[in-house]
Design goal:
Length: about 325
């Protein structure tokens, strides 16, 4: 085994990760008990219970009804009806209305049917829905960023086990994304090259952290992962949006995601994923997959992150089986 005990700087965030792999960890150790919510008698996301959800905003129809549908989140974090004005009476008490849109996409009509079991064609359909919704919400007035993410499993924050995705359209760019975008644009201004394209080139040269690849996409265990077993799924071509991908490229992209989530599901590891995209030409689209093995604890409150699984070990984990 490679013993690693080192501070590593994140590629583009102002974050340092202490990789502290002080004991041998075999891939089989990475598993946690399934903490999934059981089947609910009246799951609001199941076919037949459509009346239990807020008004439907759209669907992909199928012979038996729908294969994907979306609506406003019943427990929305932000709302198009949020009124009021920004208050800055004192520089210490700054408030703004929580205007925005919060949608739920039900990924499949089947209950207890995880993403990793989706057919290739269904997964492509789902990503086409993601792409269309992100593009349309991004063009709404006042909206500055649309966060698309999945919570898979109770350990990742999912409150319903029926597979679904969330989209939150906000009037502010989330701080971590902001930091990331400015790293990309600074890098581009300085070198006239894309940071992610350079990362891919350098990681290929190092040949240690690229987990899988196909013709147009790859899975990378990042040099300084903020979470154990974190991976980036990256299109090889320099693109900014899901809608920039050709059909063939989107297929390659989802096939790699499928491989990653299959591996996580086979060890009962809950996960989140978050789409990173921008309309700025200096940025390079990727999907951040975050398994929920470790909880950030006291040490992380200092701003440093400790990770007991090196990315080199993550590669072994994903390649096993
Ligand atoms: Zn259901
Ligand atoms: Zn690029």
């Amino acid at each position: 085994m490679i013993e690693v005990q080192v501070f590593r700087k994140h590629y583009f965030l102002d974050k340092w990760v202490l990789i502290s792999e002080n004991r041998e960890k075999r891939p089989s150790e990475f598993s946690r008990k399934a903490g999934h919510v059981g089947l609910e008698k009246s799951c609001p996301f199941c076919p037949g219970n459509e009346s239990l959800t807020p008004k439907e905003l759209g669907r992909v129809s199928s012979r038996s009804g729908w294969s994907i549908r979306w609506f406003e989140n019943k427990f929305a974090a932000v709302s198009p009806n949020a009124g009021g004005v920004s208050q800055a009476g004192s520089p210490l008490f700054i408030e703004e209305p929580s205007f925005g849109y919060h949608y739920i996409i039900v990924d499949t009509p089947k209950h207890n049917f995880p993403l990793s079991s989706f057919s290739k064609s269904h997964m492509i359909k789902l990503f086409n829905v993601y792409s269309a919704l992100v593009d349309s919400l991004m063009s709404k007035p006042k909206i500055k960023y649309v966060v698309l993410f999945k919570n898979h499993g109770a350990g990742a924050g999912a409150s319903l086990s029926h597979e679904h995705t969330q989209i939150v359209a906000l009037t502010k760019v989330p701080p971590l994304f902001k930091q990331e975008f400015s790293s990309f644009s600074r890098y581009f201004k300085k070198r006239r090259r894309c940071l992610m394209c350079d990362i891919i080139r350098s990681e290929r040269r190092e040949d240690k952290r690229i987990v899988f690849e196909n013709d147009s996409a790859l899975v990378l265990a990042p040099f300084a992962p903020l979470y154990s077993l974190e991976v980036f799924i990256i299109p090889k071509r320099h693109v900014q949006l899901l809608s920039d991908l050709s059909d063939e490229e989107l297929k390659d992209f989802v096939l790699l995601l499928r491989r990653v989530v299959k591996r996580l599901d086979s060890s009962n590891i809950d996960y989140n994923f978050v789409l990173h995209y921008s309309r700025d030409r200096s940025f390079h689209l990727y999907l951040d997959v975050i398994p929920r093995l470790n909880k950030h604890a006291g040490f992380e409150m200092s701003g440093f992150v400790i990770n007991s699984v090196s990315p080199e070990t993550s590669v072994k984990f994903y390649r096993a089986h």
